[in-house]
TrEMBL record:
This is Anaerobic ribonucleoside-triphosphate reductase. It comes from Methanococcus voltae (strain ATCC BAA-1334 / A3). The keyword ATP-binding applies. It is an enzyme of class 1 (oxidoreductase). GO terms for molecular function: ATP binding; ribonucleoside-diphosphate reductase activity, thioredoxin disulfide as acceptor; ribonucleoside-triphosphate reductase (thioredoxin) activity.
Amino acid sequence: MIASKKIVPDIKIIKKSGDSEQFDINKLVKSLLNSGVDYSDVEPILSNLYEDIDEGMTTEQLKKSIYNVLYEYEEEHGKSKYSEKYLYDNCLKIRTSGKEFEGFDKNKIAEALINEANADESVALKIANEVEKELKKMNVKYLTAPMIREVVNYKLIEHGLEDIRHQHTRLGIPVYDIDRLINHGSKDNANLMHNPESIHKWVADETMKEYALMKIFPKHIADLHMKGDIHLHDLEYAAVRTVCCQHDLRPFLMHGLKVDGTGRHTSVSKPAKNPEVAIQHAAKVLSASQCEMSGGQSIDEFNVWLAPYMRGLSYEEVKQLMQMFIYEMNQIYAARGGQVVFSTINLELEAPEFLKDKPAIKNGQIVGTYEEYDAEIKIIAEALTEVLMGGDAYGKPFLFPNVIFKLRENAFKNENYELLYKIHRLSAKWGLPYFINMTADYQVGNTNAMGCRTRLSGDWGNSVEEGTLRTGNMQWYTLNLPRIAYEAKGDDTRLFELLNERLHLVQDALLIKHSISEKRLYGDDESRAVLPFLTQEFDEDQYYRYDNTTKTFGFVGLNELLKYHMGEELHTSKDAVSFGEKVIGHIKGYADGLKKETGLRWTVTQTPAESTAGRFARLDHKYYKEQTESVVNGNLDDMGSIYYTNSSHVKVNSDVTLGEKVSIEEKFHPLCNGGHIGHFWNAEAYADPDVLMTITKKICDSNIGFWTYTKNLSICEACNKAMTGLKDNCSNCGSESVEKFSRITGYLQNVSNWNSAKQKELLDRKSNLPRL
C-alpha cells in the first residue's frame, strides 16, 4: 500500500453504531482505487484529505470529506469523475433537485421536518432514523429527493402525523400525465393550442393547482372543490394572480409605457406622438397585463381614448390603423402557454356623458375634451367594423379581441343609423359583436364587460370612473346548484339552508384569495410583491384600483336545480322562473349583505363554465347517480359529454321563441351584477341586418344587459371557402378538411379545441332567431 509522505493521522472514527475504530489508511487507499482513482493521484489526494480529518469524526462525515476532496481535485486537475464513482460505491447516493449527486444525510430529513412542517425536534429525529433504516434496505442504484420524501411521508402517516405530512408533502405530476399532455394536450381551455408552450403551461398548472389545494385553501374547502360542491376557478393562479382588468389608456398616453411596470428590465417609451405608436401601446398594455393576471384583458372606451390621435387622418388611414391593431391582437402569440391575449375592447358610438368634459390626452398633453372628438370616435368604430368584416388572409373571422358596442339612448337616432347598420352586418356575417344595453333601468353611468361576461358598473366607489376603469374581477368561485337540490330532497327550507352553507364557504375561499392577492400586489414581512405592472404609479396614484375589484359568487345549473326540485324547467313553467329568481335573488342578497359588512365589492355572476358545467355533471353522476340521470344533458353512455345548463340560461335545446327566451333570461341580468350574457343562437341562418337591428332595438327595451348573436361557421382549409353552419364538406371544392367555429362561452373558437361536453352542447343548441 501507499504510504503518504505526510504523517498518517492517528485518530479514531465514530461508526454508525456509536462505537469507535482506528482510522485505517489502507482501507481508504483501497476504496479510492476501487473508485477508479489513478494510482498516481492517490498520494496528492491523501495529502489534501489529511487536512480535513479530525478526531471523533463519524464515518458519514469522513465519506463526505473524501467526496469533497475528490471533487475539488478532479476540478483542479481535469481528471475523470472520481467523486461520482465514489458516491456510487460508498454512500447512499441522492440525485438532488439541483441535478447533482450528494451523500445521504439523515440530519437533512430532520431539518426539513423542523423547518418545513414545524415538527418537534425529537419527532423529526425519530422519523429520520427510521427512514435511514428503510433506505438501507432498498436495492437501488441511487435515491432521489422525491423518493426520500415519499418514504418520509409514509413514516409520518404510519405514526399518525397527518398534519406534518400535509406540510411536508412534495407537489408534482406523474410521468404518465406528462406523457399524455405532450402527446395529446388538454381541452380545458379551447383558446390554448397544443404546442411546446402550452405543454409547459399545463405541466406547471398541475403543480400549482396541487399547491393551491394543499397550501392556499384549508382542507374542508379544498375537499368541497374536489368533490364538486363548489368550483375554485383558476387554481393554477390562486397563489399569484387576480383575474381581469378594464384598462384606461390615458395614464400611458400621458406618461409613457413601462411594460414591466418598473422600467428596469425593459425599454421605456415616452408618450405616443403618432397614432401608430398609440395603437401599439394599446396592444402592449393588454399583453403586459396578461402576464400578471389569469383572465381576460380589456380596454374600456377604446375608441374614445384613441380619438384625438385620429384627427386629421383620412378614413383609409384610420382603417389601416385599426387593421394593425386587430392583427397585433391576433398575432402576438406570446401570452401564457403560447396563445394570443384573451382580449376585449368596449366601444362607444359617441362620447359618453361621463367623459364629455374630461381632458382629452395625446402625446402627454391635454388637447381639449372628449366631447370634441365625436366624429373621430365614430370613424374608429366604423373602420374597426369594416376591418372585422373582411376577415384574415384565409377568409377566417378574427377571434380577438372580443368587440363590445355600448348602446345608449342615442344609439338608434339617425346620426348613428349607418354605423349601427354596419355593426349588424358584422353580426350577420360572423356573429362577432357583443352589445351592452345601457338603457336598462339598473345601468348607472357606465358599464363595461368582457367576452367572458365579467361586468363592472358605475354604481361603486366615488365616481363612475372608479367603479369601471383600472379595476376588474379579483376572482369568482362557483356553486353547484343541482347538487344542492339533490341534497335538499324537495324541501324548500333545506335548499336555502344548504345554499347559505355553500355561500359561506365560497365567501371564505374568496377572502383567502383576497388576502393572497394583497400579498402579491404589495408584499409583506414574508413575501415580495410580484405584480409591478399593476402597481406602477402615475402621479402618485397606483394604476390598478384593487380596492374596487369584485369578489364574485358564480353558479351553474339553475335549470337543473328547478328540474329536480320542482319537476319543471325555466322554459316550461312560470313558477319555475319565479323560484329561480328567488334562488338567484338570495345569492344577490347574500352578496349585498357582505358589501355592507366588509366594505368589499361582492357581486354575482353567471359563470362561463367552459369546463365546470361538464365537471359538475360528471361528479354528480358519480355521487348522485339516481338523481342525475333524469336531469343532466348529454349522452349518459358517454360520460365526457354530459353537462349542466350554463348559469341561469334557458336550456340550449328548448323550444322557445326569441321573445320567450328574452322574457325569461332578462329577469336574472339585474341580479347578476358581476356578469351576465344573453346568447341568441343564429345557427344556420344568415340573418338580415335589418332584422337584427329590429331585434336589437326590442332587446334594448328589456332588462337584458349584455348579449351577442352567435353564428356557426365553417372554413375550408383547402380553398378557404367560408360557409354558414357546421359543415363536414366544403360546398366549393368538396374537401373534408373543414374547420368549424362557434362561440364556446364568451369567445369564438375552433370547435376541434372544445371539450366533449361543450361539443355536445353545441350539437344540442337550437336557433331562436328568425330564419329567412
